[in-house]
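User: tokens in, sequence out, please.
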């Protein structure tokens, strides 16, 4: 995607501007089509496009010569020539000025560079457009303010309703896809997935003998969005239940698929929170599953806005039952709404130098959808509810966590599909998803 007047400023721009004033090299990484090149090109004098085969050949032959010339220099899709990473590191060691090199990458190379770049090249993650970046409404509630722990009054009104959020899930946070509609939009998403399965995974060193099998695995992953379903359960659903186990990839091969898709940033699991509080020692740390963008889940499962609003169940609910299934499976819209909110909050949290995880006790008796943690380990706890009206049952786990954490809990929030932001009498903030921003 090229920079254009229609491509607006992203939240990550502030982070990049701050880092490039003091650091000589920054790597901006994330899935393809997320906007990395369009964001980076605005900060450089020239670009080295390594996704162009002829330029990649020349850079491979002499990486140091490829860096010669004016800076700032954008090195686009650096993973195609891993040796360029080491060449940048050498230039940094030689003492180049701040902001000299900006690298972008859509996946870690199968054969990594000789040096990690630690201390020389700082990596910044870029995700698809958050809700606040989609120009839907103006956010009135700041995550940064919530992280202060002051529990200030909040307010704001939002005209978006459940059908609007369903459309946003389907329409995606990939900037270039948001200008498309109908058949063109569906074809673009399907082509995106086909390239990832049939070409990009090969570049990661993973041979895909039967692309249809991998697509089945990805579809199972999509159906488990927002849950803590194990990878082995996904394999059962995608391969054992679907094709009776005939010619199914081994456990090792399925794990290789997952690792390669993580290197391509196409799967974006949310880690479990590891609190230091003694009374929370029974916490489970398995990740919640999310794709890079919930629109990919819709494409994999063949659902559109109407299907989501019909309350279609997650395919896992009907195709797999037993000990390995998760009790959280239900209406797909609820799972993908949680993915949409999670994606957005990870963007906001990154801007505030906070980390995001989820909380779940073993057995699932207590869980909180999102934990946003400051460097001092104090947290904001967030529940995501597919509801316009929030009742006492929706906040029960937040009250339980507040009793356990005391002052370490800076604030507690419910993200809803409602129309107003407010604080309940118990102090818990209720915020429509589109009204939350950095």
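Assistant: Sequence out:
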């Amino acid at each position: 995607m090229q920079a254009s007047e229609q491509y607006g400023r992203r939240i990550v721009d502030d982070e990049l501007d701050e880092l490039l004033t003091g650091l000589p090299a920054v790597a901006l990484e994330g899935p393809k089509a997320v906007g990395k090149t369009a964001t980076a090109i605005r900060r450089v004098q020239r670009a080295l496009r390594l996704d162009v085969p002829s330029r990649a050949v020349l850079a491979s032959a002499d990486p140091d010569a490829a860096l010669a010339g004016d800076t700032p220099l954008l090195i686009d899709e650096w993973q195609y020539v891993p040796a360029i990473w080491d060449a940048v590191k050498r230039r940094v060691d030689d003492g180049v000025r701040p902001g000299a090199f900006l690298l972008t990458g859509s996946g870690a190379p199968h054969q990594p560079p000789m040096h990690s770049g630690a201390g020389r090249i700082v990596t910044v993650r870029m995700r698809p457009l958050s809700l606040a970046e989609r120009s839907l409404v103006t956010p009135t509630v700041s995550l940064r303010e919530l992280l202060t722990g002051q529990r200030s009054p909040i307010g704001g009104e939002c005209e978006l309703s459940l059908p609007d959020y369903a459309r946003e899930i389907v329409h995606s946070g990939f900037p270039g896809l948001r200008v498309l509609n109908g058949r063109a939009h569906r074809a673009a998403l399907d082509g995106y997935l086909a390239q990832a399965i049939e070409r990009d995974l090969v570049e990661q060193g993973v041979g895909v003998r039967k692309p249809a099998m991998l697509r089945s695995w990805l579809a199972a992953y999509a159906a488990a969005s927002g849950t803590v379903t194990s990878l082995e359960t996904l394999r059962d659903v995608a391969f054992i239940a679907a094709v009776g186990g005939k010619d199914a990839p081994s456990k090792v091969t399925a794990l290789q698929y997952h690792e390669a898709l993580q290197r391509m940033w196409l799967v974006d699991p949310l880690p479990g929170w590891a609190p230091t509080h003694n009374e929370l020692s029974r916490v489970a740390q398995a990740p919640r599953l999310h794709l890079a963008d919930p629109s990919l889940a819709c494409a994999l499962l063949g659902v559109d806005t109407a299907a989501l609003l019909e309350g279609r169940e997650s395919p896992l609910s009907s195709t797999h039952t037993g000990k390995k299934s998760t009790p959280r499976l239900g209406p797909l819209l609820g799972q993908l709404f949680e993915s949409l909110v999670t994606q957005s909050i990870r963007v906001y949290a990154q801007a505030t130098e906070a980390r995001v995880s989820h909380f779940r006790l073993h057995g699932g008796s207590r869980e909180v959808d999102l934990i946003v943690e400051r460097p001092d380990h104090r947290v904001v706890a967030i529940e995501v509810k597919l509801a316009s009206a929030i009742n006492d049952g929706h906040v029960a786990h937040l009250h339980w966590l507040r009793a356990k954490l005391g002052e370490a809990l800076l604030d507690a929030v419910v993200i809803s599909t409602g129309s107003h932001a407010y604080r309940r009498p118990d102090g818990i903030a209720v915020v429509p998803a589109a009204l939350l921003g950095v």
